[in-house]
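Batch manifest, entry 17 of 40.
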Amino acid sequence: MDESAIPKDLASVFRIIEEDKDDMLSWLKELVAIPTVSAELSHRKDIMRLIEQTQEKLKKHGMHVTLEPLGDQNLSDGSKVPYPPLLLASTTHDAKRKTLCVYGHLDVQPARKDDGWDTEPFQPVEKDGRLFGRGTAHNKGPLTACIWALCAYLQSTGRPPLNVRMLIDSMQEVDSQGIAAYLKSSKKSDLLGGIDYVCIADGVWLRPKTPCLTYALRGICHFQVEVTCADADLHSGIYGGTVIEAMPDLMYLLNSLTDAEGRIKVPGIYDEVLPLSHEERKVYEGIDMDRNRTNTLGQEQNTAQKDTLRTRGQECERAAVAVGTSVEGAHWSSGDKAVIPARVVGKFSIRTVPNQKVQKVRECVEKHLQEQFTRRGSPNQVK
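Output type: structure tokens
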């Protein structure tokens, strides 16, 4: 863009952002270094520390900030702990201006170097003009950019061209626990009223230089399968080969979910999936997607992925359901362990697409797993 064509107020904002970019990067590094893992209760203090830092940052630039309590989280042992509060911030309201709601979150997924990271995930590292660390892209980086842009407006002109409300979550990675009940409460039912636009910078780019405008997201259903074979863990040297172990049963069930090409084998699960429309196919054909990007992740493309249009449709939330699994109860740390676990738990999720009903997906999966376990003929218990 010709710099002379940039409005004076906006040019001033750009100048402030450029002058302060080193400070912005330093602040982002501070945020990334705080392990705000919402899935692990041990990091709850880290989450609170980052909420307080963000609160002070916004207050410093003249925004009205409140921390809204979200109630208590019920733990498996019957105890309760408070949810991290919802951070709300807003500029001075002008009834003549449109209102923009900016959503972001401070929490991140768990990460360890031995997950495949080249560096420690909570020790941010700059390399070749990029910052590596958990949360740099999802979502501390984009949220930092939004906050810095807003602060630049406030510093330059005293107010942005829109009324701005910020809704900053700290439990997004665990389904934003506590927020739904908060928003549905009678006294907070008007929180989202009067909003004209919503900005969520929490997605991915298709290529390093190709941004992506997301118009919809897939849904998700979480499942948990538990198999028990004994009252307590058993020594494999004594009981190996004499008991039907829980782990093979669990692997059998998880393996029954998909075929070698990643297609769901659960009967009925695709019944409600709508085919790609003509208009959608035209949109997908024009998407600048890197066909070989899975190769950079250490995986060659399978047959389904080699069909470029199918891949685009999958990633654009049509005609595909994704499954991810994890297992609890097994030995995972370094060294060997001669133990047969008494109980193992498999967790997986299914990404739902337009027209699929969560209840139907749940019924199909539960029926399939029960039928598979019956067919296996195991004496173990499953639930």
